[in-house]
What we know:
Helices cover 35% and strands 14% of the residues. It is of the alpha/beta class. The chain has a seven-stranded parallel β-sheet, with helices on both faces. A five-stranded parallel β-sheet has the order 2-1-3-4-5. Helix 9 links the parallel strand 10 (228-231) and strand 11. Residues 110-298 form the D-isomer specific 2-hydroxyacid dehydrogenase NAD-binding domain. Residues 6-330 form the D-isomer specific 2-hydroxyacid dehydrogenase catalytic domain. Pfam families: 2-Hacid_dh, 2-Hacid_dh_C. This is D-2-hydroxyacid dehydrogenase.
Amino acid sequence: xxxxxxxxxxxxxxxxxxxxxxxxxxxxxxxxxxxxxxxxxxxxxxxxxxxxxxxxxxxxxxxxxxxxxxxxxxxxxxxxxxxxxxxxxxxxxxxxxxxxxxxxxxxxxxxxxxxxxxxxxxxxxxxxxxxxxxxxxxxxxxxxxxxxxxxxxxxxxxxxxxxxxxxxxxxxxxxxxxxxxxxxxxxxxxxxxxxxxxxxxxxxxxxxxxxxxxxxxxxxxxxxxxxxxxxxxxxxxxxxxxxxxxxxxxxxxxxxxxxxxxxxxxxxxxxxxxxxxxxxxxxxxxxxxxxxxxxxxxxxxxxxxxxxxxxxxxxxxxxxxxxxxxxxxx
Length: 330
């Protein structure tokens, strides 16, 4: 019987894992540990599925090869935690799950767009302090009167665009590879025009060398002072120090961040006692009443979790059978 090791497994994934094992007659061993601390468990398995944000230690790849593995499947869309050159050197096929549920992230972004347009962050802070007044500068904007700019009109950005269009919003898009089927839903413009015109800018790009620092001080200075920013892509896409400065200088009004620089140190940790002293930029974002932080949970829905498990495990079986997975990234 084929044996597969899955690392960083959460309780909410277990039902899908057990269902897949039963339907496909495979044995799946699970651990809460990162592969960094569980590499010895790969000695007696045929396949490996991981999920983590931190980079794999360089020594991992040779150990996996020595233990007879042929692949690494990450049950995430992002794969920047894997050194593709090292994987290739050690004959390890790498697969990801590029579209586990575009709607899950798109719906989260839509929720945050609404929260920014409705100034929810202001009311949250006031009510938490037992202040039930409302003020002239808290007047909201109805979605059908708003212009929303989407940077990265791929699977997720395109899904968001359709939701926004159905609600009557004007949708602008910037993408290095505009899709013909999105014409009529998205008005493709330059990045500069999108920033100038949008009431909210929503980021949906992959993390790669060209997207790191995609938004910096110059970009925030281009945006409307009344505009908001949503980032449900990856933290390094935004220069956080520049964002903090722009928010303080009122160059933009607010930000809703599901991903942010420094998240690797804080996501899935309990900071109630220790605080955020070791991650000063995150601490600064946390202290601002015009910033909404969520711990990288835009993906976290019933359908997305099942798809991430199923697609990653299917890729393992495909590679082990000597076939080519459509999700290979190296």
